[in-house]
Sequence to fold (318 residues):
Amino acid sequence: MAKKWTKITILAATAALALTGCANGGTSDGGETGAEGGTIALIMSHMTNEFTTTVASAAEAKGEELGYEVTVFDSNQDASTQVSQIEQAVSQGFDGILVEPVSTDGVVPGLIAANDANVPIATIVQKASQQDLAAAYIGGNEVEAGKLQMEQAIEAIGGEGDIAILYGPMGSDAQLARKEGYDAVLAENPNVNVVFDQTANWVTAEALELTENWLSTGTAFTAVVAQNDGMAVGAVQAIENAGKTGEIQVFGIDATADGVAAINAGGLAGTVSQDTAGIGELGVETMVQLINGEDVEDEVLTQAEWITKDNVDSLGGE
Fold:
C-alpha cells in the first residue's frame, strides 16, 4: 500500500529552538538553514560502527545532490535520548525525519510526537513495533537476510555441527528479525546445534572478547554466525588469536569494507550484502517524496545478496 503525507505548515515555539544534540557538526537550528530544498533529520541508533556511518554518509551525500540538508543525530543506543531528538527535530522545524529505532517499542512516543506535529517521519534500517505510525520503512528485509545467512552457514559446515551466534542489541528490530530468520532455518536442520548465543551489541571488541571466552571453555563449535560484520570481524580476530583459523568459519551481515577485507584475507567465509549505502540514499529519496506530498510504498527494500571470495569483487565501491 502506498502512503501520501499531507504537510501542514506549523510554527515551532521559539524557546524550543534552543534545544541541542545534533551530531557530526549539525546545528541546533536545523529547520532554519538555507538548504535549497529543505532539511531532513537523520536520527541513527548509534554511530559506532562502519554500517551506521556508511548509511549516514550516503544519506548526507544524497541530500546534497537533491538540494536538502541532512543533519545526523546520534542516539547512543539510548531510547529516551532518541525520543528527545525526534521532539527536538520537530521543534526546530525540520521538514522530515528519518529514524533508526534504538528500541522497537521505545521509539513509539517519538513517532507519535512527529505525527501530532504533522512532520513526516519514516524508519530506516530497523522498524518500530507500531510501524503504522511511520510513513514508510527503508532498509533490508531482515528476516530474509537472517535466513540467507544461516542457510549459507549450514551449507558451508556440511549440514550438521555445533555453532555459536553473536546477536546485536537484544530487542532491537534487526536482532529480532534476523533471529526469526535463523530460527526458521534451524527448525529445518535438526543436526545443527547452537552451543552459544549471546549479544555483542554490534561491537567488534565485545565480539572478540565473547568469542575468546567461548573458545576458552573448550566447547567445540565449527561456525560463528554474527548478526553484523563488525561482530564477525571480532570473532575472526579471536579465532586467529587462538590459532584456529580454518577450523571455525565465520559469517556476517552488511558487507562493510571491514567485512569485505576479512573475506579477501580469508578470515570471513561470507556476508550478506543489503546495499548499505543504498539504504541511506533510498531513505533520503523517500523522505523527499514524502515532504513533497508524493505517494510512497510502506516498505522500500534493498535486495540481499550472499557475498564470498568468489563474488566479492562484484561489490565495487560498497
Observations:
- The chain has two domains: 2-135+277-301, 142-274.
